[in-house]
Amino acid sequence: MNRRNLLKSLGLSIGAAVINTDALAKLSDNTFSYRLADNPLHKSLAKPVTAVTLGAGSRGTVYGNFAANFPDQLKIVGVAEPIPYRNDKYARKHQIPDENRFETWEQVFDKPKFADAIIISTPDALHYAPCMKALAMGYDVLLEKPIAPTEKECRDILKLAKKTGRIVAVCHVLRYAPYFVKMRELIGQGAIGEVISVQHFEPVEHMHMAHSYVRGNWHNSKETTPIILAKSCHDLDIIKWVINKPSHRIVAMGDLKWFRKENAPEGSTARCMDGCKVERECPYSAVRHYHDERKRLYVMDLPEDKSKHSDFIMNRLRTTNYGRCVYRMDNDQPDHYITSIQFADNVTASFSMEAFTSYHGRRTRIMGSMGDMVGDMKELVITDFRTGKELKLVPKAEDVENYKNSGHGGGDWLLVRDFVQAVSQQNPSLLTSTIDESIESHIMGFMAEESRKRNKIMDIQMNA
């Protein structure tokens, strides 16, 4: 079978033949790269969709960068951001006029509707109110996950979206990554027979955990959202989406074991630069990570003059949480978290989020009646039980992979691309993560947290 015919048999373009276990059994061992075919429902735009960004931090910048690189599809015409540096930088990049620059999200809605859509990339606790206001004023919404901090607020947004007929796209970006799109497609086509169970693993990576969930914006679940939603609603969502079955029950366990005051090394201090005797050997040294190695500096809002960076970083470490000892923070997020889920047709899944790894990148194993799948987002390996033969697929996000700030396997910008089409055509079916499609995995997350705290198995009730 030559490469062209193989690609056709694998269903790598819309309308191609279905792959199943019989087709797999006929293949020789091979590795093939692929990209997703163009969606035939996409249309050329007469003019770009316009949007206002609420929150010009990391995620707002990622979505805004799509507009900067594809100005014929999306134009950012307004921004709300309380940090002047970020507001100025975002406004310059997108040439936003002064009259459309705001400090708070509330000020955006003091004006009559002046764009097609609102991009909500504010902190977790500030998703609900601006989303409800945007819908009431007739905007379509691109909503960063999690949808909202409580189940009631999530359901309220869903109700208002249905009442107003507006589009709410939830940023479950993994649904748009070619790796997971192909995984779901192959499962649906019977490539491994009937799905029996799933194992999914998210290695957070030890410094990512320290950066975001010990020192960073999500260190306190009461002020933001529990880590199962803040970090891992992506994972609950992708498990549910890939196997394409409703969830019934969930049980969870996990706790904050390591990043606690009683584990602080002897000789450590409140801040890494306060004369800590173990700073040089500590794996969580803020001085080494931010200053010496210059990592994760997007939170520092560095000046353009690089000669000032060293002093600026050290000042930030002296005055913000990013310089504090990881053992002496007011953090409460679990650093290890496991859940078990029962889906329809007795399909079971286990999910493990682990902070203490030297690596990151989600890993998934799917066990079927006629084969299995093993993948790490870089490669997906399908094995046929009858022949023992393997097929290796390497995903490519060719339209976005060469641009900075595209992440999640290419899913970030592929989501925005589909959102632009959905808004332009007023057709939410062009999206796979509308709020009515995405809310179930949030309910799973809320029930997981209830299970963890109450030490009991929780039913997942979507009609509550």
UniProtKB/TrEMBL annotation:
Residues 53-171 form the Gfo/Idh/MocA-like oxidoreductase N-terminal domain. It holds the Pfam family GFO_IDH_MocA. Residues 184-451 form the Gfo/Idh/MocA-like oxidoreductase C-terminal domain. It comes from the Bacteria. This is Gfo/Idh/MocA family protein. It comes from Pontibacter silvestris. The lineage of its organism: Bacteria, Pseudomonadati, Bacteroidota, Cytophagia, Cytophagales.
